[in-house]
Amino acid sequence: MTGLLAIPAAMMLASAAPQAAPAPVPSTAPAAPAAAEPAQTAPATSATAPTPVPAPAAPGEIVVSARHATKEDPLAGLNAKSYEAIQAVDNAVVGPVAHGYQKGVPGPVRSGLRNVLRNLDEPVSAVNYLLQLKPGRAVKSLARFTVNTTFGVAGLVDVAKTKPFNLPYRPNGFANTFACWGIGNGPYFFVPLAGPITLRDLAGLLLDRAAVPFAVGKPFNKPYYALPAGVIDSLNDRIEMDGQLQRLREESPDPYVATRDLYLKQRRAEVGAICPSHGDAKPDPNLPPRVGKGVD
């Protein structure tokens, strides 16, 4: 994500600090007569430099904001600590496990498992398209589910995105429906398992997960399915986001702020693609898709 974030200018005016007046040199000359005009005394100056003022951002440059509470992120301090703790766990446990899964499980198998989980989400996507008054997209989601379940061997192969069907994967969920209904983001959080998320999106995610068993039925409504499915989905996402995660850590002045701002921009773009009046209808073309939510 080179170029996504810029390092703000700092201390650029430090060299402009006024210098204190030099101390007078003692003189042995006799004192001036009383009638003489008194010497002018240099005005007192402060040795403290003025507060540096950041230079204005260049066109197209994104200046990273500080870790202070904002309207979108009222719990910034707590979220930043949560982010740091989760990153430490990721470095020690999640990352190595995901890399082991990537090396130990062949790519076609990992891709097949990902396709199965995506296919199971299609009925929920269709329901939400109907709630968003997008019946044409709802029909396409149901068509993808039917084609991949039958011709794609229960969804292992994403046949629907190929010719002659030409039905690409277009994820949808209750969070997008809430946005289309005019419900705002609510406060931003960085929480375990979900990562960066807003209150609206967290409520939508929980509804999505609860709706899959009802929409698909057996055996996916059993507890023994939910745990391994969630683990596999998380590992696939962690592998997919590895490059992006490393760039955020290495190239951003503040990875927490960069992660937050990127997530909010991505969500505005996703909502805008469905309901332009409630999201960003013309997002930055260089904005990467959110992990697991890109269109094939």
From TrEMBL:
Membrane-spanning intervals of the chain: none
Keyword Cell wall biogenesis/degradation: no
Keywords: Lipoprotein, Signal
Superkingdom to which the source organism belongs: Bacteria
UniProt signal peptide: 1-20
Biased composition range(s): Low complexity: 28-50
Region (Disordered): 20-58, 274-296
Family: Belongs to the MlaA family.
Record-given protein name: VacJ family lipoprotein
